[in-house]
């Protein structure tokens, strides 16, 4: 039972690390899947398979080689010199991603709480700074609470969408996008999210090191991510094209279900953004500490201030510009991770 409990914590942390600002708000699902119309559901299945396979492989590799940070993983995959350069690039990418997360929190405050974009940025920054002092245990705990709640309320939105007039739109929705762009999209999505998840999943694999719990957690987490992607796609498809007007599409749909559901869902969207931001900055700070000999407190503060400055560009523009570009940069990492066969056989689930 303890091993199953540990597997669930791993799964929830995996889901919580991927389900960030873009995912929880619906912008990521729209960008990578829903805009491709009826191809979206099949593309989600491809992404789910990649999450299960490579998420498991990443954590098992981290446990095997005793990798404490994503730089150790990149040196293993690319060699010492190239691995160091890849890690430098990933530091830049992660700073951009965390800026998107913080901007997403600002959009929640301005679009749904009427408290102002800057207020959202500052409140999230300070909350993140204080929670990060608790380390990995805080990340595991907060994801174990927030992710199940998010899954429950996403299911409510799906049920609402499937009972509405656009229930079957995900099967008939047309797209002008090229087939090449459509089939590259799940690869870009998985490559980007898995490479960014290294910041949390590599230290997690090293800390737990139980191969059965890690593999089971990766399967549960990968399938959970796929289920939430599909739920978001079905919901957004039913409201196309009107839902395109929102910076936070899922929040706009939740408003139509009812006031109580809307407020609870907006709170959960914020918490999902917050948990991913906390996890990513934790991993980024560990990596920076190997290069810059400052305390975690000062490094965390410096990262948050950078993200605050970048967040002034706004959530929508940052996500639609940076995420596809970062996905392209992550494809090489995805291919090498998939081809790495240096692990010994592992026990079954």
Kindly describe this structure.
The chain is mostly helical and 349 residues long. The protein has a single domain, classed as Up-down Bundle (Amino acid/polyamine transporter I). Helices cover 80% and strands 0% of the residues. The chain is built from 15 helices and no strands. Helix 5 crosses helix 6 and helix 6 packs across helix 7. The longest helix has 33 residues. The chain is globular, with a radius of gyration of 19 Å. The two termini are 14 Å apart. InterPro entries: YkvI-like (IPR038728). It comes from Cohnella fermenti. This is Membrane protein YkvI.
CATH-derived topology:
Amino acid/polyamine transporter I
Name the shape in a single word: globular
CATH architectural name: Up-down Bundle
Q: Any idea what the radius of gyration is?
A: 19 Å
- Number of folding domains? 1
What is the CATH class designation? Mainly Alpha
Structural classification:
mainly alpha
Q: Bin the strand percentage.
A: under 5%
Contiguous helical run count = 15
Mean pLDDT: 79
Task: Classify the helix fraction into a percent range.
Answer: over 70%
The largest sheet is: none
Give helix and strand order, one letter per element, not per position.
Answer: HHHHHHHHHHHHHHH
Number of strands: 0
Instruction: Name the poorly predicted regions.
Output: 343-349
Give the distance, in angstroms, between the N- and C-terminal Cα atoms.
14 Å
